[in-house]
Write the structure tokens for this entry.
Amino acid sequence: MYREDFPMFKQDYIYLDNGATTFKPQIVIDAITDYYCNYSANAHRGDYSISYKVDLEYEGARKKVAEFINADINEVVFNSGSTEGLNTIVSGFFDNLVDPGDEIIISKSEHASNVLPWFRLANKHNLKIVYVPLDANLHITLEGIKSVITSNTKVIALAETTNVVGDIRPIKAICEYAHKNNIFVVVDGAQSTPHKETDVKDSDVDFLVFSGHKMCGPTGIGVLYGKKELLEELDPLILGGGMNESFDSEKEIYLKDIPQRLEAGTPNIAGAIGLGAAIDYLQNIGMDNISIYEQKLKNYLVSKLLEIEHIKIINEEAGSGIVAFNIEGIFSQDVAYYLNKYNVCVRAGNHCAKILKSVTGVKNTVRVSLYFYNTYEEIDSLIELLMDKEKILKEMI
Amino acid sequence: MNTELKRQIMLDNYSNPFHKETKDKDYIKTNANNISCIDDINLFLKIENDIIIDAYFDGEACAISTSSTSIMLKNIINKNINDVKEYINNFENMIYEKEYNKDILKEALVYDEIYKQENRKTCATLPYEALKKAIAKN
Ligand SMILES: Cc1ncc(COP(=O)(O)O)c(C=O)c1O
């Protein structure tokens, strides 16, 4: 199903690295090409008709994003992706807000993009980084969060779904508890928004970021969501055209309203339009259908892997379509090289979660990350290839 | 050397690497890693009077990198720095499909066909990057 929508599947790949990025359906490619071929003008210059069309399409994409995550349209800021979004939140919002001694709660399974900006902030303002305890399955519970909250806790920043363990965090419950204690919640949606229903009003998150390329959209486009009153307080990190109302020679600057204030310079117009098309595509399938299917497929994969003696799964219990494992005595990258000989694409390594090894003792893993276009047949082919350890040892070099 | 023998030599050096042990401050320590993979190797060299009198390594790396490091160490211990430089040149020439002297490469000849796998050339040359850094540090 759906596979005929994706030009990449004309080649014979078994693509199991969707946590890194996803394939693009033809309609996304067409939307981008249509912009470049038929109305290739700049945005916010509505003096002539093709530029007016750009505004309609660009702002139309913003509306699609807003509906997709149940936000208001002016709460959606386009940027280059999750990494930029997290940096903007840390340096544009929290940098002005924190005091020495404040505490920031993250976890040891966060992606580097949700760790390093906080480290820098902590070093600059003398803050404390506090790690939520992970349970035996490496998951986070509300109880675990409660156990590390103190009167100094300023913000909890977590991925909704982590990119190695693949656990889905109880974001709504965390927000409810955090807000009662005047704590902000920042959510990294890079691995969740592409795979499950996201509703910022229901979960009540303060900030959310995600990346277009991990949800069938183009590279170089992403979204920063923030509650209106918080975005109003967010200092733009980049100043220039498109974000100011006026300025004079006395160095007075008057900024535009959000979200334009936070989108200096010519935006990634093609990217936003492509992301809009990707959202239409995903909505058409239905986010619930996507998560249900991925979960079934993942359960099937896990049950098959469990039958193979030389395989050790790190995250059997994860609620997402991410499975990390190792083959006894074989370096993960050698497994990936071996699978590549059969056009099977998986990722080996620490997956940017470099502090996770201090909890698991496992530094590198092979990671399979599924999407709705993966099939049971692909899983069977993978299992077939992993079954015979001698064959792997023989063919990995 | 046939492919099967080459593979066996690599696997032997991977499973039972030569001088895989962490060394202390008496040794020159250098690291090699590369952006496209997760290999991460530390090299420990002891150089006296321009002779590499001792060499070890540690770290986590794939079968090609690990075996290549193991073989490299066997080939450089008790060698004069200039000979080692000559050896490095020859090894790199082999990997990059240029003229090279087979005689001085010994076991390292098992990588003479690695150019056929573009994405694994950097695995084979990884320890040589660390070795070059160590020599420059000396
Ligand atoms: C959990 C998580 N956060 C953040 C990112 C960063 O996303 P991007 O590289 O698109 O900015 C990733 C991507 O790998 C991720 O998996």
